[in-house]
Amino acid sequence: MKKLLKPDMKVKSIFEIPLDNLYERGFHNLIIDLDNTVTEWNGMDVCDSTAGWFQELRKRGFNACLVSNNLGERVFTIARRLGIPSINKAAKPRRRAFRQALDILDSGKYNTAVVGDQIFTDVLGGNRMGLFTILVDPINPKEFVGTRIMRIFEKLVFKEKSLEE
Ligand SMILES: [Mg+2]
Question: Average pLDDT for consecutive 10-residue bins of the chain (165 residues)?
């Protein structure tokens, strides 16, 4: 059984995702987290390089959907700016929003990857759905207090893993 807390791939940021490699492997759709993956936590700024990366995605034939646990309108505003669909109040790691995103993307488990910075929401949720999961380092350590607590557990998980290996 696939370990539910283990990402299939780990990279430093979205910019390091090997897009050609993913595409060749048949993953043409990306479900992408917002906070600390695409922007700083609760930040409104999308930097030029990030906007450029989303353009590059489109050019290479990928479809993307933002899926965020954040409650605000901000999710839609940023998604509009990036020219992609979005879901807020996603309640990851619950599966409902992932299913919705697959619908929106008109994609399936075999051709969709999840990108996010949190093990207990993005990776766990993606793995529960049977999707390919990519963990990125968080953009900024300033974050929601609940997330900070989850980080402590994430560290424990990684410690355990390195002991296993
Ligand atoms: Mg996040």
Answer: 88 95 97 94 85 95 97 93 96 98 97 97 97 94 68 74 57
Domains and CATH numbers, the chain: 9-164 (3.40.50.1000)
CA nearest neighbour of 91 among 146, 30, 154, 14:
146
Where residue 89 falls (left for φ over 0; alpha for ψ -120 to 50; beta otherwise) is left
CA angle 130, 141, 20 (to 5 degrees): 45
CA of 118 to the centre of ligand 1 (A): 6
- The H or E element spanning position 67 is strand 63-67
Q: What's the 11 CA to ligand 1 centre distance in angstroms?
A: 14
C-alpha 160 to ligand 1 mean position (Å): 22
Residue 2 CA to ligand 1 centre (angstroms): 22
Model confidence pTM above 0.90:
no
Residues having C-beta closer than 5 Å to ion ligand 1: 33, 35-36, 117
DSSP 8-state class, residue 32: E
